[in-house]
Write a structure and sequence with these properties.
Shape: elongated
Radius of gyration: 33 Å
Low-confidence stretches: 10-33
Mean pLDDT: 93
Helix content: 40-55%
Largest sheet: 7 strands, parallel
Number of strands: 13
Number of helices: 34
Distance between the termini: 77 Å
């Protein structure tokens, strides 16, 4: 049987097929629909669809001019799964009508089907409701209300796909629809589409069509931002998120939050020019110190991510430091919570430009004090409730500790690769593990592994709302002993949760330097990664583990996909490698690296890392020219298909040159695991001492430089002294069996000892609740 839509069109006279408005009142004959006490209708209500069909068939034979008998006969047949028979009943009723009558009868049938679909939904029969609305779509494809409800039902049934949405042809209907739309219904539909269809591109197209009928408002933006964040960080499609929020930008071009988000998504998608441009647009319209600080931070992020805009980034950094100082001096209160979230991460770039522990920490601590004061204002009740947690006599120093890990990095992320060994070797008789996942990393096998290691899990946006305060409530209600933060100020949500202090003992470990938030009790370090005098500049107590603040058992290594011959590098050449993202490219260090290349004959410099390829090449070529290094000696490496292949490709290098004032961390561990000599410059701040502590913890002193001159000297010496390179390679290979850096099990025992002592300290303090 041909589709009902085609048959109805055939019955109409061309030019009379007018659009039936949603909610059109019933015409005269429609008011004579079967009475609710009619036996056939009662059978329908009771679910006896076969009996209802039989009675309606009899009624139609007795009263053939009463079209409602046919409408309900079709419904009864449809509810039995007899779809073709239902269509036949409806067409039979319309076969003898003129165009005007057919239009009238179609309106009647639409209303009957809509009412029955609603009834089936109320009876919790969404599949039947969906079938009815599919037929309604055939009868009246331009019925927008039906299309929206149909999408919602498909989503409820977990069967909504991009192909189905396209089949519904709802987008052209939205684009041509002139009447007023039920905005609430439209927003509900938009929300389910954005929840289920990304990363399919049609989700953005559908959003654009919806926004033709919606005014800019906070609820609309919230739906779009929640979806965009999940798409960018959960599905890892930041470019799609940028395009999605750009559609809202068309409605509200002066919204700073929108500009910041678009800029960030473009930067994450490595579309650096667009990201920088949107950041500049936000800075141009910022009207106060808070807005200027956050706009400048977004610009600085874009310039540094690209990696080659050194002088612009340096100017933005200088401006940023001044803005932060001004902000702390003004110390405004009553700042909107959404802005406070962003201010938590505003000092993030300070250590990338200068190695000055005192100045960087003082300014960062002041920003954290400002943020905490504002959190106390807008979340004071929650903070007070957490502080008055009941104290149980069961909380003893010998009990099994309830330890929670909070992070967005528990997956295929540099932090995720490193922290897994602690989770693997935790003694489950001593600790009960809770995992608080800020991001749901779909399709990430390491994320799934982390979940499997936890006895209890909570995912923001899945197990609780997309709200840091709700997640904090979950942590509080779990009655933890110790909460361990793996993000520090790399993530705003984590910083705010730690400020709320939902656990009695709070610790920062691994993800970055300490946050500087006084609600955090401890920062995990070791004898080397911070100087002895650093405590004066940390509100957290620096807890130094006996040997190293991080240990791993090793790294997975696959087959390389890159060889020297692919890069046109002779087999007897000396290959230096620097593999870091654009953030860490400091001009002064790049100049030192070029001096090493210049002083080692037959040497090449391999450069790899996430950055804008054009700008980063210009950056290094310019410095090479200044230092007298031929540009032909530089090689820019492509991305590897996986971390394991990337590590295998590192074997091309004879020597790795570390960055400064922000060292490598995961990249340093990978370098040492691969047995490659490393040259690192040691400074004062945590970020400038990561490679130092790692070299100390594999027993290698060669390559540790305390001045710029020593950095160059070590680099040249490694390049010219093959025996030295072989000695270090041998030391690194041997260290795999003996060094603290490669002993995840021993590290887990040391962390557990630290947790136990922290808990004991808490139990013996004077101000315990209760």
């Amino acid at each position: 049987m041909p589709p009902l839509r085609n048959t109805l069109n055939h019955l109409r006279i061309q030019g009379h097929n007018t659009v039936i408005p949603i909610g059109l009142s019933c015409m005269t004959s429609f008011s004579l629909l079967t009475s609710t006490d009619h036996p056939a209708y009662q059978a329908l209500l009771q679910g006896n669809y076969q009996q209802a069909a039989h009675l309606y068939e009899q009624a139609a034979e007795a009263e053939p001019d009463t079209k409602s008998h046919y409408w309900y006969l079709g419904v009864a047949l449809l509810l039995q799964g007899q779809e073709a028979e239902a269509q036949t009943a409806w067409l039979l009723a319309m076969a003898d009508g003129n165009p005007e009558e057919i239009e009238q009868w179609t309106v009647e049938l639409v209303q009957v089907l809509e009412a029955e679909s609603d009834r089936q939904e109320q009876l919790n029969n969404p599949q039947l409701a969906w079938v009815i609305r599919q037929h309604l779509r055939e009868i009246h494809p331009g019925n927008l209300n039906n299309l929206l409800r149909l999408i919602q039902l498909s989503a409820h049934l977990q069967q909504l796909t991009a192909e189905e949405l396209e089949t519904f042809e709802v987008i052209p209907v939205l684009e041509s629809f002139q009447a007023k739309v039920d905005e609430s219904q439209l927003l509900q539909t938009l929300e389910v589409v954005l929840d289920q269809l990304p990363p399919a591109r049609i989700a953005v197209t559908f959003t654009a069509a919806c926004l033709r009928h919606i005014s800019a408002s906070a609820p609309v933006l919230k739906i779009l931002l929640n979806a965009a964040i999940k798409i960018a960080y959960g599905l890892r499609y930041p470019l799609m998120s940028a395009h999605l929020i750009e559609e809202y930008h068309k409605l509200d071009s002066a919204n700073l939050e929108v500009l910041w988000q678009i800029a960030t998504f473009y930067q994450n998608a490595r579309e650096y020019d667009q990201g920088i441009e949107f950041a500049r647009s936000s800075l141009a319209i910022a009207s106060n110190t808070v807005e200027r600080t956050l706009s400048n931070m977004t610009l600085l992020r874009g310039l540094m991510s690209a990696g080659g805009f050194w002088y612009e980034a340096l100017a933005a950094s200088t401006n940023h430091r001044q803005l932060l100082s001004t902000l702390c001096a003004e110390h405004p209160d009553g700042i909107h919570p959404a802005l406070i979230l962003k201010l938590f991460i505003s000092p993030f770039f300070l250590p990338y430009f200068q190695d000055d522990l005192r100045q960087n920490r003082i300014l960062q601590n002041q920003v954290m004090q400002l943020c905490r004061a504002n959190v106390q204002q807008y979340a004071g009740d929650r903070v007070a409730r957490y502080q008055t947690r009941p104290f149980s006599a069961e909380k003893t120093a010998t009990k099994r500790l309830k330890v929670g890990y909070l992070s967005h990095c528990m997956g295929q992320h540099s932090v995720g690769w490193l922290a897994r060994w602690l989770l693997k070797y935790h003694d489950r008789e001593k600790v009960e593990l809770y995992g608080y996942f800020v991001t749901n990393r779909q399709g990430d096998y390491l994320h799934e592994w982390y979940q499997s290691q936890m006895e209890h899990t909570c995912h923001m946006g899945i197990d609780c709302a997309d709200d840091a305060h709700i997640l904090a409530d979950h942590i509080y209600e779990d009655d933890l002993d110790i909460l361990v933060d793996l993000d520090s100020i790399t993530l705003d949500v984590t910083a705010e949760i730690m400020t709320l202090k939902p656990a009695p003992v709070q610790v920062t470990w691994l993800g970055w330097d300490a946050a500087g938030i006084s609600a955090i009790d401890y920062f995990i370090a070791d004898p080397y990664v911070l100087p002895d005098w650093a405590q004066d500049y940390y509100p957290e107590k620096i807890w130094r583990l006996p040997q190293t603040y991080i240990a791993v058992d090793g790294f997975e290594v696959e087959v390389p996909n890159l060889r020297r011959e692919d890069l046109d590098i002779p087999a007897d050449a000396i290959a230096y490698l620097s593999t870091q993202k654009g953030y860490k490219r400091h001009r002064d260090t790049a100049k030192l690296q070029m001096r090493i290349i210049k002083n080692v004959p037959n040497s090449y410099f391999l450069i790899k890392g996430f950055a804008d390829q054009n700008s980063i090449q210009d950056f290094f070529y310019q410095i090479a020219e200044e230092e007298g290094v031929e540009p032909e000696r530089l090689r820019f490496l492509p991305d590897a298909p996986s971390e394991a292949v990337h590590r295998a490709n590192m074997a091309i290098a004879d020597v790795v040159l570390d960055t400064f004032p922000y060292n490598g961390a995961t990249t340093t561990l990978e370098t040492l695991w691969m047995g490659i000599p490393l040259v690192t410059r040691v400074g004062e701040q945590f970020a400038a001492r990561n490679s130092y502590t790692m070299l100390k913890n594999v027993g290698v002193e060669a390559g540790i430089a305390w001045t710029d001159e020593e950095y160059v000297e070590w680099g040249v010496r490694f390049g010219k002294d093959e025996a030295l390179r072989q000695q270090v390679n041998w030391q690194l290979r041997q260290s795999r069996q003996t060094a603290p850096l490669w002993n995840g099990r021993q590290f887990a025992r040391e962390m557990e000892n630290a947790y136990a002592q922290m808990w004991s300290n808490y139990l013996h303090q004077d101000n315990l609740p209760g």
